[in-house]
Predict the structure.
Amino acid sequence: PVLAEQAAARAAARSEWRRVAELLGLALEASPRESRDRLALALAEARVRGGEYAAGLESLKSISTDAGSRQALRAITLRGLAHQRLGELEEARRLLEEALGDSLTAGSADPVALAEGRAVLGRVRLAQGDVQGARGLCPNVDAAPDGVAGVPLLEVGGLAAYTIGDLEQAAGFFKEAARRAREAGDAEHLARAAGCLGLVAQAQGDLGRAAVHYEEAWRLAEARGDISVVFEGLPVEADDAVADGEAGVVEPELMERAVH
């Protein structure tokens, strides 16, 4: 089980989520009882991140989400994320709002799990057009938890500000997210923050700066083997604008990659 877990960690660093799920499945079969919940949760996450949403939801059925359980909020967040990706926004919102509103469930979670849960809820609210609801989860940069744990919420705050046209505030959120991700060596979140900074610069008419941000985003994402991280959670119209190379910001080669 240890060797399989180590191999899964290396595959995760390359965003090879199907391989991660395969390896964690092997580790889970041979693991001692005390490791099963942890591995089952990791397996569910790999399946959800790899686009196998139904399989991820099935994996999550074996994990306790009783209030007070340390893994409860993380498991519910993954369920919410899977439902979001399936377009089942009402179910995702119900799950997340109930969990985050439960003092026992939220109180027993670590700060990273709590921030991730709020960030997924924020993305769901944005997808539903509830911009103010999303902004309420992170109204300003200082409202995000310290360190890299706060990066997902900074992304939500920035996307909400971008959606209503407050480009200066959006840039502030994304710059802080990029700073923290860079300091932590978190290439995935740095790629996303760079892509978002490109969108803001493009909307401000600074095409040269936008191109620099886009190029950094693609370089980081391709190094991980997963260019989808650049667009994850962006408003549809923003995603389309980048993919279409609106205003000639994106190099033709990068436009081709974005479309395909």
Summary: The chain has 15 helices and no strands. The longest helix spans residues 167-184. Confidence is low (pLDDT under 50) at residues 235-260.
